[in-house]
Amino acid sequence: MLNRPIAAIDMGTNSFHMIIAKKENNHVDVLDREKIVVRLGEGGSDYDYITEEAEKRAIQALKSFKSIAKKYNAIIQAVATSAVREAKNQNEFLKKVYKETGIKVKVIPGQEEGRLIYLGILQIIPAYDKYTLVIDIGGGSTEIILGYQAKPLFIRSLKLGAVRLTERFFPKGIIKPDKIKEAENYIRNFIIDTYEEFQNQNLNYELVVGSSGTIKTIVELIHENQKKEFSFEELNTIVEKILKYETPDKRQKKLNLDEKRADIIPAGALILKQIFEIFKIHKMVYSPYALREGVLFELLYRKNKKSDLREIRRNSCINLLKKFHQEIPYNTANISLKILKFLGKDYPELLSHKELLEYAALLHNIGVAIAHTSHHKHSYYIISQTEYLLGFTKNELDIIACISRYHRKAFPNKKHLEFMSLSSLEQNLIEFYAGILRIAIGLSRTHLEPDIQIEKKENTYIFYVITKNLQDSELLCNMADLRKDLLEYKLQKKIHFISK
User: Fold this and answer.
1) Under 8 Å CB-to-CB from 174, ≥6 apart: which residues?
2) Which residues, at least 6 apart from 232, have a Cβ–Cβ distance to it below 8 Å?
3) Which 3 state secondary structure label does DSSP give 295?
4) Model confidence over 107-154: pLDDT tens digits?
5) What pLDDT sits at residue 130?
6) The domain 125-288: what is its CATH number?
7) How confident is the model at residue 217 (pLDDT cuts 50, 70, 90)?
8) Which residue, 350, 369, 438, 485, shows the most beta carbons closer than 10 Å to its own?
9) How does residue 307 score in pLDDT terms, banded at 50, 70 and 90?
10) Do the beta carbons of residue 149 and residue 128 sit within 8 Å?
11) Mind spelling out the 3-state secondary structure of 337-361?
12) pLDDT of 306
């Protein structure tokens, strides 16, 4: 358990939020909160670019957060969502943020965002023993999650957000009847596809919880008191009121809205209404806790949780393999880690991300589910795009996908954009891990896992491959020998295999 307070920062598309808390005995003591409207996704073309103006606002907000966190001697954990994960200039933005603020930002995929949101709402809503449908409408994306007993069963991150849709259909927050219809049809297509997936998996819910600024605003418009629950009928009534006023100024005055929410609330309300209709929701409970509280809880309680982060990550890899009806290559993963452990004596920097090698070894062949030809490329696509892998940052998934991509055929090179987009340190890691994985694949060509002993002699690494049957050992040595080129290149040493 961490003794210092944690400052969890959620860098959303519309607003940045920070919560500072520490663990006292068996409860969390919230020390401070702050929110700054940044509009990080504003001005870019369909969220593919963070503008210079948005970057300046983001850096200024983070500097303010850091000053507050410093008063509490808090450890800062910042996560970024859709506006950053979709930006083509993501790397430049993150480097600038780190240079200006000293804050390292983790960009999380939509599925990880959904997992942490669900974890956050469990801290305030008594939903542990209920099948709970969670709806979080952000500025750039909407997360739809079904969870039970702290386990997410279904997570979808949709490119539907209050800021994103406002820029697309209601520029400057001005609404017109024909654009309302267009927006409704656009939203409906996204939600129907998600609902069909939900139904196809025979899923259902007992409780519906909403989080985020859009739902907070709607619940405040419906209930001026502290009531946190509203019905479909109440939602319909308030949506009609919102859409009655054409401009943000009118909405702000007539509905007593926050001026920074008045322009985007029509888009957010339309998303929520469509979700209610399509998912046949009768009632929703609002949760003031969401992503940032999930990040906070993950850090404060990780050591005490029955399912720690490693278990969540590994289980999601195994579940993805099962979904694609693939065998789970435990032998390949075990042998990869054995080789890495030995090489770590000479290259200790390789040990810092050994989990990523294990996950890549488990998933390297998943592309066969699409086609055997070029299946390494299909593996890259599935790993980098799937919504089933939980507990990872986007960067970690990119690294795992690349290791899997290079488990066969060509070495990484400058023509491969997915490889070149990563840092030089990450590229080096991928080359080493892919070289190890290639050999591990060769050494796991039989169902029995061999005993591997490695010895270093001057400019040579000798792998002793031991099985009960000498013929099996010889076969494995031959298979591994065919796959040693990449690791030899990285080590700048020869590799020999000897059967025993």
Assistant:
1) 246, 247, 248
2) 276, 281, 282, 283
3) helix
4) 999 999 999 999 999 989 999 899 999 999 999 999 999 999 988 999
5) 95
6) 3.30.420.150
7) very high
8) 438
9) low
10) yes
11) HHHHHHHCCCCHHHHHHHHHHHHHH
12) 43
C-alpha 37/C-alpha 471 separation (Å) is 67
What's the start-to-end Cα distance of the chain, in Å?
A: 47
pLDDT, tens digit (0-9, with 9 covering 90-100), for 90-102: 999 999 999 999 9
Please count the CA atoms within 13 angstroms of the CA of 234 that sit on its side-chain side. 18
How many Cβ atoms from other residues are within 10 Å of residue 211's Cβ? 29
Could you tell me the fold of the domain covering 309-499?
Hypothetical protein af1432 (1.10.3210)
Which residues lie below 8 Å from residue 149, measured CB to CB, with a gap of 6+? 128, 129
Name residue 138's amino acid. Answer: G
Residue-level pLDDT at 397: 95
Query: Are both 6-107+295-303 and 125-288 of the same fold?
Result: yes
Q: What is the pLDDT of residue 79?
A: 96
- Is residue 449 a contact partner of residue 331, using CB atoms and an 8 Å limit? yes
**What CATH number labels 6-107+295-303?**
3.30.420.40
